[in-house]
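Open question from group meeting: does this chain pack into something compact, or does most of it stay loose? Before anyone orders reagents, we agreed to write out a predicted structure and look at it together. Recording both the input and the output here so the notebook holds the full record.
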Amino acid sequence: MGIIGHWITPEFEKRDELLEFTEINGPHSRENLAEVVLKMLAELDIAPKLLTIIGDNTANNGTLCDSLHD
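Structure tokens returned:
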């Protein structure tokens, strides 16, 4: 699973950074996906700054977001 962050700096410069790249152990369930995202958000201390999640070719995007919200 790869997670890329996009943001604007205080100087209004666009930034893109690979925040996480890890292998998912087991099925790509909402729980397994959410575990990776939550761990990354905690490690980088950026959870309050999360605005949106966009996924590529996965049916679990909605359930991942539900799991994160819970």
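Observations to bring back to the group:
The chain has a mean pLDDT of 88.
The helical segments are 30-44, 61-69.
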